[in-house]
Amino acid sequence: MKKSILLFVNILLISCFLLVSGCAKPVEKEIKEISLSFIGDIMAHRVNYVYKPFSAIYDDTRDLLGKTDLTFANLEFPVDDEKEYSTYPSFNVNSPYVEEAIIAGCNVFSMANNHSADRGLSSIKNTVKNMNKFKEEKGIFWSGIRNSKDVKFSPILIEKNGLKIGFIAVTQFSNADGYHDYVHIVNYRKKKESDEFLQLIKEHHQNYDLFIVSYHGGEEYTTVPVSKKKSFFIEMMKAGADIVYGHHPHVLQKPEIFSINGERKIILYSCGNFISGQTWYQKDTEYDTPRAWTGDSAIFEINFSLADGKKSMYLDYTPISNYIDKKHTKVYKFDTIINTDLIEENWTTYYQKRFEQVSKLLTVENEIFIDCE
What is the pLDDT of residue 367? Predict the structure, then answer.
């Protein structure tokens, strides 16, 4: 009798266990996601700022810039309201020029580039003041310059969608001597500077879910990154950068997707120019010249997710191009230019040829796998 009762109890317990385990819902993974856009240099050549309204620059791209959670851009000039607008070789803009970029959807800015110190220390300080004002009033983020040696160059924290994102902007050099203390300069050709920066990445990246480095440097007007720059970008990635966002060449360079120890990372070697006046004198027959590349770019979109400590990223892009008429300088999607009667008929072949070349360059081949110790 006792054995029968014991057997019955055991059967009952096993049945309950199977019932409970069969009905229990699987534990759902916590997934955090964010969408990011990256564009190239926002320049301030005379043809960019003499035509108003500035908002016209973004008419055809604001739907892309504004749809992602964060949109990164490089501002290739000081922002000093006490000085007039000025073009190459010594740039300057006033706040309204930057404000239209913010309204269009740009909200994370690299301020470290070779033109950061074009107008001297007073303009660096005024740029910091204006960018901090935008941060307070518009909720933007920025990195790359400082108004005092007491302010430490270090990653800034961006908190979005439950994610902690680290962002730091540096430049290879400055056109103006004597401002190393105020512009974050890291020359990949100088071992001490590059080693110190790689160590900074190693120390800080683990504090964030996603770590992004903006690097302004390399050779201008070449669609292939020089070997030393490419090697340094890969070293930054190995040190802990998830995305390396490059600019300065003023032309596009092919992006690459890596898998480092099974974790996907992305390098944008150069995003080219977003808006510039460097094709102002271009003729409609000059679609094969090196100069033609300065008018073309892309809006790169990266979708990032974090699930149970595992990161994943996916890259997409939309090719864009500058179009300058007698009233405005604008940035258009190639799709808009080619499939509408927007442009003069004699320019149709030019933009069709440019689209073919840009699309070919941007095609990403196989993912590159690297195992680190």
Answer: 77
Domain that holds residue 197: 30-370
Regions of the chain short of the pLDDT cut 70: 1-29, 372-373
- How far from the centroid of its chain's Cα atoms is residue 111's Cα? 12
Q: What is the DSSP string of 329-360?
A: EEEEEHHHHHTSS-S-GGGHHHHHHHHHHHHH
Q: Given this model, what pLDDT does residue 26 score?
A: 54
How far apart, in Å, are the Cα atoms of 272 and each of 46, 74, 277, 332?
19, 10, 13, 15
Q: What are phi and psi of 127, to 5 degrees?
A: -65, -45
Question: Within a domain: residue 263?
Answer: yes
Binning the chain into helix, strand and coil, the percentages to the nearest 5 are 35, 30, 40
Q: What is the CATH number of the domain that holds 194?
A: 3.60.21.10
Amino acid type, 245 = Y
- b/e per residue, 3-31, with b = 16+ CB within 10 A? eeeeeeeeeeeeeeeeeeeeeeeeeeeee
Q: What pLDDT is attached to residue 103?
A: 98
Residues 86 and 78: their CA atoms lie apart, in Å, by: 10
Integer Cα distance of 118 and 269 in angstroms: 24
Q: How many Cα atoms within 13 Å fall on the side-chain side of residue 11?
A: 6
Could you tell me if 257 and 281 are in contact, meaning their C-beta atoms sit under 8 angstroms apart?
no
> pTM score, two decimals?
0.91
Residue at 184 is within a domain:
yes
Does a structural domain hold residue 120?
yes
- How many other C-beta atoms lie within 10 A of the C-beta of residue 137? 10
What pLDDT is attached to residue 13?
45
Give residue 122's region: left, alpha or beta (phi > 0; psi -120 to 50): alpha
What's the pLDDT score for residue 2?
40
SS3 state at 145: strand
Element at 39 (helix H, strand E): strand 31-42
